[in-house]
Amino acid sequence: MGDGGTTYSGVNPNAVWLNSRGIWLSYVIAVTILHLILLSIPFLNVAQAWTLTNVVHNIGNYIFLHMLKGTPWETNWDQGKSRLLTHWEQIDFGEQFTTTRKFLFLAPVILFILASFYTKYDPLHFVFNLSTMLLVLIPKLPQLHGVRIFGINKY
Amino acid sequence: MAVEDVIVEPWYMMQMVQAFLQAPVYHIVIEVLLIVWIIGLLFSKSYRIQERVQLTEKEKEDLLAEWQPEPLVPDTPEDHPALHPRVVSGKAGLKVVVDGKECLNLATLNFLGMLGNKRIEKAANSALYKYGVGSCGPRGFYGTVDVHLDLEDKLAKFTRTEEAILYAYGFATIASAIPAYSKRGDIVFCDEGACFAIQKGLLASRSKVVYFKHNDMEDLERLLKEQAKDDKKNPKKAAVTRRFVLVEGIYMNYGDIVPLPKLVELKYKYKVRIFIEESLSFGVLGDNGRGVTEHFGVPIEDIDLISANMEMSLASIGGFCCGDSFVIDHQRLSGQGYCFSASLPPMLSVAASEALLIMEEKPGIFEELRTRCKWLHAKLSSIPGLKVCGEPISPIMHLQLAAQSSRTEDTTKLETICNECMNQGVALTVARYLEGEEHLLPPPSIRIAVNVELTEDDINDATSVITNVAKMVL
């Protein structure tokens, strides 16, 4: 289950499932499908579709990686150590700058660059794209590992 | 609207490149910064966030230089009791043959006299021929035999709870049950005098343990009030913290009974869950032997989990937990001792089932046991030089020295008393603890266990032996 050939029982699967084979490709395909769905909505033009892809991707990224805490299953092996940690903090057991983390850092940035290109650098779209990109990049910094600003989402 | 407006206008590459060349400066700057950052990121090495203090090379060398290796086997004194165990031949029933001498058994915890019971032996023998000796597998991997399910059923019906779960080792029962429910960030209020198995379970659970004074409900209430105050200050943390109170029915180290009605009152007032470890009170207290809940008339639904050892009254091996299905079922996947140890040998399950049947058929033995406890307690209280600790109806009593000095001296005196008593035909034992590991080391004592088969003559003889020996030694 969720193995990159690296899981064994007694280990938090949340920490290793993103190292699995084919995750990067699946991620790219998922974002592409999202974009194609948004492009097929008739009343959106291309710029709006790109900005929406970027924004939806970033918000989804934030919710799943930085808002939801703990694991969806029983943690018999660690007596609740990951109960208060977000998914991002659990990846690779807290090791910073691993390959998975680098990939997840890059994804919003590349989307931002693409979105800026396709919106022809329009200022309003720029505001949305930049703000959501920062929303998603700042919690990924190692300096913010385990930090809960104003105690939001602490328990 | 014209058709052209609905169809999205095509974006030509030329237009895109033109837009790129006319892009605002701030945007270009941000994108360049991002790209530089990405390249820096791609080349950074992975590291763990340091949680410990970093030592310099010199500090490391100093620490290495001053390290002295400890011997693998530390020196033990020649007269350490573990080096001279008393060897028992045959069954340790009412009379036990120790080191070749037949003695009255006041040392082993055979409260209902089930050890050596012919009916149980017959049932166990037929189970042996049917199932073999061991079950050779944990409960999840073909180690579940029909007799296990049968015994769990019987135990649930006997204790009048919804479900019971069996463990293969008595110590592991409570030591697995606690970490299954209480995790990091939870709080357990535990009695100071709890037995070693409970202490190990609390250690394994990684939760915050708050000890209250032995059997002192006022102290517990004070601690609960403090916790409630802290909870009011931090309600978000309080909403995710689970709180438990962990007590024993009859305490192994002291022989007291927990004041259960007051505890249940505190439970509903401060919203904590009660876990009771009923190893010594199961099969002893209550009109039908159901334990401390029956003794006080507290409905069993008020207690969240009862855990008991079958190695005392039921004269089998292993332990069980009983309670609501919702609670007990959780242990089938989270109880470490349940999932990762081989299951109870079928022979011993059948023995325990048979013992339960005997308990159901003859509910009079519990009152008889309590009468004998009261007799023995009364007799032992009159011995000069020794004082008895424990409730009169508790089958476990601790004989402590009336005048206590240092621990080693007291232990030596008590050991001498035990040895002398054994020479005169009464088998006694000094209560042993892992002295470096216990949370609260009780004073040295002789632990006396009552057997329902003791007659009044036995009790009188034993008391006179102990009195004489005590007079001699002290």
TrEMBL record, chain A:
It is a multi-pass membrane protein. The chain crosses the membrane at residues 23-44, 103-118, 124-141. It is found in: Membrane. It comes from the Eukaryota. InterPro entries: ORMDL (IPR007203). One of its GO terms (biological process) is regulation of ceramide biosynthetic process. Keywords: Membrane, Transmembrane, Transmembrane helix. One of its GO terms (cellular component) is endoplasmic reticulum membrane. Belongs to the ORM family. Ceramide-sensitive subunit of the serine palmitoyltransferase (SPT) complex, which is also composed of SPTLC1, SPTLC2/3 and SPTSSA/B. Plays an essential role in the homeostatic regulation of sphingolipid de novo biosynthesis by modulating the activity of the serine palmitoyltransferase (SPT) in response to ceramide levels. When complexed to SPT, the binding of ceramides to its N-terminus stabilizes a conformation that block SPT substrate entry, hence preventing SPT catalytic activity. Through this mechanism, maintains ceramide levels at sufficient concentrations for the production of complex sphingolipids, but which prevents the accumulation of ceramides to levels that trigger apoptosis. This is ORM1-like protein 3 isoform X2. It comes from Branchiostoma belcheri (Amphioxus). The gene is LOC109474618.
From TrEMBL, chain B:
Residues 102-463 form the Aminotransferase class I/classII large domain. The chain crosses the membrane at residues 20-43, 164-182. It catalyses: octadecanoyl-CoA + L-serine + H(+) = 3-oxoeicosasphinganine + CO2 + CoA; tetradecanoyl-CoA + L-serine + H(+) = 3-oxohexadecasphinganine + CO2 + CoA; dodecanoyl-CoA + L-serine + H(+) = 3-oxotetradecasphinganine + CO2 + CoA; L-serine + hexadecanoyl-CoA + H(+) = 3-oxosphinganine + CO2 + CoA. Keywords: Acyltransferase, Lipid metabolism, Membrane, Pyridoxal phosphate, Sphingolipid metabolism, Transferase, Transmembrane, Transmembrane helix. It is an enzyme of class 2 (transferase). GO terms for cellular component: endoplasmic reticulum; membrane. One of its GO terms (molecular function) is serine C-palmitoyltransferase activity. Its cofactor is pyridoxal 5'-phosphate. It comes from the Eukaryota. It holds the Pfam family Aminotran_1_2. Its EC number is 2.3.1.50. InterPro entries: Aminotransferase_I/II_large, AON_synthase_class-II, PyrdxlP-dep_Trfase, PyrdxlP-dep_Trfase_major, PyrdxlP-dep_Trfase_small. Pathway: Lipid metabolism; sphingolipid metabolism; Sphingolipid metabolism. GO terms for biological process: ceramide biosynthetic process; sphingosine biosynthetic process. Component of the serine palmitoyltransferase multisubunit enzyme (SPT) that catalyzes the initial and rate-limiting step in sphingolipid biosynthesis by condensing L-serine and activated acyl-CoA (most commonly palmitoyl-CoA) to form long-chain bases. The SPT complex is also composed of SPTLC2 or SPTLC3 and SPTSSA or SPTSSB. Within this complex, the heterodimer with SPTLC2 or SPTLC3 forms the catalytic core. The composition of the serine palmitoyltransferase (SPT) complex determines the substrate preference. Belongs to the class-II pyridoxal-phosphate-dependent aminotransferase family. This is Serine palmitoyltransferase 1. The gene is LOC109486369.
